[in-house]
Amino acid sequence: MKPLAKRYQDVIPELKKELAIANLWELPRIQKVSLNVGIGSIRGNTDRVEAITKALSKIAGQAPAKTASKKSIAGFKVREGDIVGLRVTLRGRKMADFIDRLIAINLPRQRDFSGLTPDQFDKQGNLTLGFKDHAIFYELTGDYFETPFGLSVTISISHSNPQKSLTLLQQLGFPINKG
Predict the structure, then answer these.
(1) Which single residue of 111, 128, 146, 171 could bond 11 by disulfide (Cβ 3.0 to 4.6 Å)?
(2) Are 39 and 78 contacting, i.e. CB atoms less than 8 angstroms apart?
């Protein structure tokens, strides 16, 4: 499989024709990939939080940032400033490498995976994938976790709407289920 940047260059002429866009800079393009893990229920268990931090570092290829609570919520037993999540934002080469691994290796490893659906796009055309279990990521093969953790992956696409994003991702080789 060609690298993402090369595939994008190859699909530009067809994308311009299919979307009826003459200006190259108005074409949709992938800006960034964001990975997020919520750790609200286990935030007191520092060993588990550290293990998830290391796992997210392996998946993304860079260290995650900690997300702090902005306000106190008594019902959730959260105080302002408590660490409630981890996030990683990938751009450039790391983003392209992550997307290549996601398409070629990780998504096919997901049980009962039949492709991405158009309803996974938001109004701005960004694609969000939710994973209940981290085990599909081959970077973690052999690592042991007592309980699995879930994460979300958001692929942000500029100059887009859901239909343009769907067309772009189909052209780039994402497994799209039209049903």
Answers:
(1) 171
(2) no
For the domain that residue 126 is a member of, what is the CATH number? 3.30.1440.10
What is the sign of the dihedral through the CA atoms of 134, 61, 153 and 168? negative
Count of domains observed in the chain: 1
Summarised one tens digit per residue, pLDDT across range 119-135 is: 888 888 898 988 887 77
Q: How far apart are CA 124 and CA 120, in angstroms?
A: 11
For the whole model, what pTM was predicted? 0.85
Query: φ, ψ for residue 105 (rounded to 5)?
Result: -120, -55
Asked, for residue 9, whether it belongs to a domain, the answer is: no
Tokens of 100: 């290549």
Q: Is residue 16 part of a domain?
A: no
Question: Is residue 118 classed exposed, middle or buried when 0-12, 13-18 and 19+ CB atoms within 10 A define those classes?
Answer: middle
pLDDT in tens, 40-66: 777 677 788 888 888 889 889 899 998
147: helix, strand or coil: coil
